[in-house]
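Form 12-C: Joint structure prediction
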Amino acid sequence: MQKIRHALTVTRDADFAQWYQEVIAEAEMAEESGVRGCMVIRPWGYGIWERIQALMDARIKAAGVENCYFPLFIPLSYFAKEAEHVEGFAKEMAVVTHHRLIGDGKGGLVPDPEAKLEEPLIVRPTSETVIGAAMARWIQSWRDLPMLTNQWANVVRWEMRTRMFLRTSEFLWQEGHTAHADKADAMAETLRALEMYRSFSEEALAMPVIAGEKPENERFPGAVATYSIEAMMQDGKALQAGTSHYLGTGFAEAAGIRYQDREGQQALCHTTSWGVSTRLIGGVIMTHGDDDGLRVPPAIAPQQVVILPMLREDDGDAALLAYCEELRRALAASQALGEPLRVLLDKKPGKATGKRWGWVKKGVPLILEIGGRDAAGGQVSVLRRDRLWREDGKPNFVGQAREGFVASAAAEIEDIQRALHAEATTRRDANIVRGIASFEALAEFFSENARYPGWVELGWSRPSGAELEAVVARLKVLKLTIRNTPMGGSEVAGNCIFTGKPAIERIYVARSY
Amino acid sequence: MQKIRHALTVTRDADFAQWYQEVIAEAEMAEESGVRGCMVIRPWGYGIWERIQALMDARIKAAGVENCYFPLFIPLSYFAKEAEHVEGFAKEMAVVTHHRLIGDGKGGLVPDPEAKLEEPLIVRPTSETVIGAAMARWIQSWRDLPMLTNQWANVVRWEMRTRMFLRTSEFLWQEGHTAHADKADAMAETLRALEMYRSFSEEALAMPVIAGEKPENERFPGAVATYSIEAMMQDGKALQAGTSHYLGTGFAEAAGIRYQDREGQQALCHTTSWGVSTRLIGGVIMTHGDDDGLRVPPAIAPQQVVILPMLREDDGDAALLAYCEELRRALAASQALGEPLRVLLDKKPGKATGKRWGWVKKGVPLILEIGGRDAAGGQVSVLRRDRLWREDGKPNFVGQAREGFVASAAAEIEDIQRALHAEATTRRDANIVRGIASFEALAEFFSENARYPGWVELGWSRPSGAELEAVVARLKVLKLTIRNTPMGGSEVAGNCIFTGKPAIERIYVARSY
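Section 2 - Result
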């Protein structure tokens, strides 16, 4: 096989972190904003987020959940209760202290000392407290339950070390918050959201995930149980891609969310919360990207097919453009993955070859290059992003008759969606290691496979409290964490490698983002 | 005609401001959040915003504009340039000064003095500066132009006196920002956005508006020309419902947005910006609401038809629900206004009559009440929200055969959209007064019609500078403002009532929100 000249300067093998940054820059997904920890999400990155929103929102609405909007600012006092219970409480949050700027008399600006807020406001890191206060107003009787709300919003958590899409001070997310009459109903909702995230990741993002319960030490503070979906990135690390929490009655008690039951008695609600964020985009990059840039699963691709006319700035261009426009219209009339095909005719100035590599790096599933001869002969030249290179190291364009291509384009798009999912699943499954029988063997495995370690599946005794803390501390030395206990796992045999007690459930141990 | 017992306690006539608040509360659209100047937008209000977003976003995308996302925070220094030029600069904005909270040792929390930001951050009041900086990075040559970007986001302007949807410290909006090679192209975009807002208001919101140019004194600071759409509320006041600005090259110069033209020369871009916000919802309430609550134009109604089964908690309920579910499915299969009909079967516990008045106040276009006898006889009982009352003061339910209703429901929905627009247009046109020939007559008109003054259309000489300022000051005494000069207005005769010079264009003078 010929040496391939990849579109990126850094390969995944050479430097995964650097490769990740290069994909984001070259696919024009996002960039540093000049504001610490905040990114600018560019049209291609934001278009992917819009697709994620549209598909996820449809699932959220189908479950009967209603969207609302809550304030950006939360009074400082709302956090005081939390602080009472937390030793050495210190929260990295953006604090608003003034409501006016004035000139400093030296050509600069300063916060106006006369406009100091009586109570500082916090830019929401999450909306539990303010939504809890609203639910306490809205819920009176069992007739109001379940109350199912969701919000799409920006939130801020001051981060010292940021990485685009994965950990930024400001990020975009959805946060579901629900209140229920009893534990059974709240748990059902918690697991419904978890399953929604799992199926969404597999189907829309083509990203295989393990849905399961987080260990006690990784629970959302105050939650009774926390569940997650975990995806394996191409460097073998785990990415927590979504969480769902059963909060018991503790949050309802703090916020006063009570209802009158059918017997006329006052009772506390059981609440849940669940969320996914722009972090999903980071997961998509590290699941599907290759040494030529991003590969976007068709379901979330802002454009699924891009048509590049090879314009020559001569008399033939008009006929070529007419052919391409007719092709665009024919393709846009077909349906793939339950929606009309998204097709762009890229008429921007510039050489087709240069534009081609731009679209390759953006990861558009199908690229069509159409020259004057193609137009005259009723042909199209098709490049599938997931089969980019020929054996001889050249781009794998396949010439096809126009009619045949138009008839099969939707099926091809659906095949790419399947192929990306299959490729990622095969890789993930090949990199889950089983049969490690001691802590020493675990340590040895990760030290020997530092480059692409994957995950280790173990049976354990589900220790809690101090016993769990000891396990977590030993893993931390190896830079390892417990990801989750998979839902519906089969029975386990043998003993826990941490406690020596009989194993009762499976866990995944991995390095993680 | 019998006395009608309206669903609200306050009528528009009795107290328009109080009526407005009651509509919002009773339609469960929004409420005070407990955070100064910020509201909670409840599902019905947010559902209307989602509809506005979906329809507006389709128009924005169809114009080739791409959505992006820019940071919530803007460094203080970005505002310094503006301050240099503005005498006594003072801006009401939320200022972030710290990035951490810590316990104060007395059970409370305080901003950590150790975590003071070197440079304060401002919560964006608008994103001109930060988007300008991005455009300066993105634009190199004429090939990159026009650059058409838009953002859907929350923004904050500290407001001393707030009113829900109309003026809140935090609000939701879209802001379009575009860069062009020359003035002609930028002006075309400015007017395209204006026309988009005009047609959107008329078609989607059923809200008639006058599109025109704002007078010089009402321009966005730094803009060369500002255009607006102005709607007349039911108290006769004007609401500025959207703006579009041609910014010339001033903003490009400040941000360094330059391009290399076809001859290889560096040139400044011409930029535009344009926006509408959740204020549109306030406009919809004050255009279409009546003494029974909101009336939502079908195009932006989260639900267009609500089916209320009259459940009796007996054996007949199952058959009734089956009939209603079948009815819902049949209705949802038809198309109104280019989309599938949005139909809700409201199975929540509670009496149908009580639920009916809830939906009346929310303004859902069609309400169906279905009892056991209707189900048995293949009937439906239909209430049109815009024809709510019979002559005898009873709700105007019309019994119809199910088949006939299903066949005509989409047409009925489209008829309601038209009827609301026609009603609002008739009222608006009836309340524009012409022929006022002197300033004294103008003053007299508004003092004699304090309750429902409407607008006055005048010809004027388009004064500028100090001459305009004198006009503005005289109008201010009467609490009047110049709204805009309508686009494509016919020729005017006579003299300007302010300057005595020959009139050269029309203006509207009104009280306003």
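Section 3 - Comments
The mean pLDDT of chain B is 95. Chain B has three domains: 16-72+124-288, 298-421, 432-510.
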